[in-house]
Amino acid sequence: MNAPDALTAKYRHAVRLIEAQRKILIDAGGQSEVLDAYAHIVRHLNRIPAKEIAKVMGVKAEVRETVPQIPPEVARRMSHSELQVLISNPTTTRKLLESIAVYRFGVPKGSMRSFGNIATLKEKLKTLMDNERSHEIISSIANRSVTYSSD
C-alpha cells in the first residue's frame, strides 16, 4: 500500500470510529442534538474527496519550487514570430506559456487560474501580442511625427 492509500485507510478508520461513538451514544440515550451533530460530521467527513484527505490529516504537501520554464530575460526579448511559433505549437506546455504571460506581458501569476484551459491561455497570449504590436506601431508613428515637426 502506498503512502496516500495508507493515509486514506487511516482516515476512513478514524471516521468509522467516530460513527461507532455515535452509535454508542444512541444506545446510551444521548441527546438528539449531539447525535444529529455527530451524524452531520460523519456525513461531511465521508464526502471529503481523497485528494483532500492529506490536508485534513495534517500532512503538509511537498512544496515544489516553481522554476520558470523560460528565463524572464529570454521571454522579454523574444520576437513576435518566435512567440507565435511557441503559441501555435501543440507540444508547448502550459507552464511555458504561463512564464511568457508573466515575464513578457506582466500578467499576474495569480490570474493564471482564470485561464481554465491551455486554449484560453493561448488566446489571451495572442491578444496580448496584438496589443503589444499596436502599441509599437502607435509609438513608431508618434516618434515619426515628432521628428517631422521638429524639422
What does this structure look like?
- The chain is mainly α and 151 residues long.
- The chain has two domains: 3-56; 72-149, no CATH class.
- 71% of the residues lie in helices and 0% in strands.
- The protein has seven helices and no strands.
- It has helices spanning 3-27, 32-47, 50-56, 72-77, 80-88, 94-105, 118-149.
- Helix 5 (80-88) runs antiparallel to helix 7.
- It is elongated and about 95 Å long.
- The N and C termini lie far apart (81 Å).
Determine the oligomeric state from the structure. single chain
**Net shape:** elongated
Distance between the termini: 81 Å
Total DSSP E strands: 0
Indicate the proportion of strand residues. Answer: under 5%
**Major sheet details:** none
**Overall mean pLDDT:** 87
| Structural domains: how many | 2
How many helix segments? 7
Amount of helix: over 70%
Flag low-confidence runs. Answer: none
Give the gist of this structure.
This protein is mainly alpha-helical and 151 residues long.
Helix-strand layout with pairing:
Layout: H1 3-27, H2 32-47, H3 50-56, H4 72-77, H5 80-88, H6 94-105, H7 118-149
